[in-house]
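Notes from hallway chat w/ T.B., transcribed later so I don't forget. T.B. wanted the structure written out for a chain they're using in a teaching module, and asked if we could keep both sequence and C-alpha cells in one place. Agreed to drop them here.
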Amino acid sequence: MRRLLLSNDDGVHAPGLKALAGALENHARLRVVAPDRDMSGASNSLTLTRPLALTALDNGFYSVDGTPADCVYLGVNGVWEERPDLVISGINHGANLGDDVLYSGTVAAAMEGRNLGMAALAISLCGQRHFETAGRVAASLVGAAENLSLPPRSLLNVNVPDLPWSEIRGFRVTRLGYRGPASRPIHMKDPRGRDRYWIAAVSENADDAPDTDFAAIEAGFVSITPLQTDLTRHETLNDVQGWLDGLSHA
C-alpha cells in the first residue's frame, strides 16, 4: 500500500485536512503532519531561528509549531525511517489560483515535498462547503498518480469548485491566470488609538482567459495546473545579457 504524507496551511485541526484524511484512509497508509495553527500565507518559509516541536495528537495526526514547509520537511526528511511515496497538501479552505501560488502555504507544503524528491499535489477547495467533493477529487488523483510522470521539481496545483460532486463538469489542465495589482491595505485604529493595517482581500482577475485556472473554476471544472520551482524567465536571458553588455561598454 502506498505511503502518503498529508499536510496543510490551515492548521492540524482544520476540517479540510480531516476530510482529506477521511477520503484517502482506505487508499493508502497515511501520515499527517500539519501546523499547530493557521499558517495561511506563509509561503515557502522555514523556521531557522528556533527548534521545532513535533507533537502527537489523540487522532494520530502530528502538529508542528512551525510553517507548512517545516511540517513536510520533518515528515519526509528523517523523523521517520520510511519516506512517503507522495505528498498531498490540503484541502485548503479557499482557492489557490493565479498569483495566489506565490503566497500559498498549501502550495508551499507540496513544493517542499517536491524539493525533497517526492511527487506532490496541492489541493484547494474554492469555497468552504463541499470538502467531500475535493476529497473525492483527491482520491481519484491518488489512484492514478503512479501513471503520471512529471519533470523534476514540478508539482500539480489542483483547485476544486465548491459544488456537489454531481455538479462537477470534469477536469481541465490549465495555466495560471493572474490578478490585478494588490489593493491598498485597510487602515484602522486599535483600542489605544494606534494605527494598524490589514492586508486587503485579493484583487480582481486580470487574466482569466479560457485556458486559465480561473476560467476552469468559473465553468465548474476541476483545474489542474502543473507548476515548476524554476522561476527563471528563460526567454529573456539574451535580452538581459544584451542590456548588461550595453552597460559594460557605456
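Follow-up for T.B.: The radius of gyration is 19 Å. Might be a good example for the class.
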